[in-house]
Amino acid sequence: MSGRDPNRMLQRRYLREFLPAMLGYVFVLPISIILLLRVDLPTGWKVVVALLPVLPMAFVVRAMLRHMLRQDELQQRIELQAVAITCAVIGLASFSLGFLQNVRVLPSPTWAMLWVLPLMIGVYGMVRLLLARRYR
């Protein structure tokens, strides 16, 4: 045995994939926003520029999924439960908000959909921590 901690190696591999993708997102997002606010672009280019931040975020999600698949069975079980609970919470919340917006009890801001992925990531992180504590 090499004496190396497999969990530490797994974490380093994850960070090597995750950090460049997240830095790409942090770099591309303000550029996209500035271009959309300050430059009069044709519709086709607006679509391209508006969707630019999605590309590095797709690599963030890819890094997260690959990390999950490399983990042992117990950790994968925790991840699966965290994802399932997150989907249920965010799904029911967005479903409820949609009904309330439909009857005009709540406003329907154009930016509301932008919060789905960040909320999913946040709820997933909290649920994952709680589940991990349960299995210790």
Task: Explain what the structure shows.
With 136 residues, this protein is an all-alpha fold. The chain has two domains: 70 residues; 65 residues. Helix content is 79%, strand content 0%. The radius of gyration is 19 Å and the shape is flat. The two termini are 26 Å apart.
Specify Rg, calculated over alpha carbons. 19 Å
Coarse morphology: flat
Series of H and E elements: HHHHH
Helix content: over 70%
Major pleated sheet = none
Q: Would you report the number of β strands?
A: 0
Pick out the low-confidence regions.
none
Structural class: mainly alpha
In angstroms, what separates the terminal alpha carbons? 26 Å
Q: How many structural domains?
A: 2
Please state roughly what percent of the residues sit in beta strands, choosing from under 5%, 5-15%, 15-25%, 25-35%, 35-45% or over 45%.
under 5%
- Count of discrete alpha- or pi-helical segments spanning 4 or more residues: 5
